Amino acid sequence: MKLDKFDREILRVLQQDATVSMADLSQRVGLSHTPCWRRVKRMEADGIIIGKVTLLNSKKLNLGVSVFIYVTLKNHDGDSLTDFENAVQGIDEIVECHTTSGEKDYLLKVIVESIEEYEYLLKNKLTHLPLVDHLSSTFALKQVKNTTELPIKRQ
């Protein structure tokens, strides 16, 4: 789907505040209410807008430890990859899972309350994921940038 300048501006505004009213959104992007509403509905139907969320402050929820884990699997056949990917879905502390190129197969992002909680998770869940050969953990010391906004270019 080709996006014009109005579509891109709608997406920029919604990324910053998904609770914005349609009246405010249409005013901010320079469209009347109905055409703006139609564009939003079209982008939802086309799968460009896939949901609206509430962002939480992890530190205020006592979830201040972020760990990045490189995973290497023993096997790389389709069933092995599928089994691993299905298994990570059931671990709430894993908030992101990416397949990667190069020597490592996956990159996980885990968020927990403490290093002790991560150690428990590592020993009791992560090392028991299907076909795991090697895990390499790196703890984030400080978050320098955090954005959920995609870099939508202006035309």
From TrEMBL:
Say which domain of life the source belongs to.
Answer: Bacteria
Keyword presence, Transcription regulation: yes
Lineage of origin: Bacteria, Pseudomonadati, Pseudomonadota, Gammaproteobacteria, Alteromonadales
Q: What biological processes does GO assign it?
A: response to amino acid
Q: What is this protein called?
A: AsnC family transcriptional regulator
Molecular function (GO) terms listed? sequence-specific DNA binding
Q: Which UniProt keywords apply?
A: DNA-binding, Transcription, Transcription regulation
- Residues covered by the HTH asnC-type domain: 3-64
Q: Which PROSITE patterns match?
A: HTH_ASNC_1, HTH_ASNC_2
| CC annotations in GO | cytosol
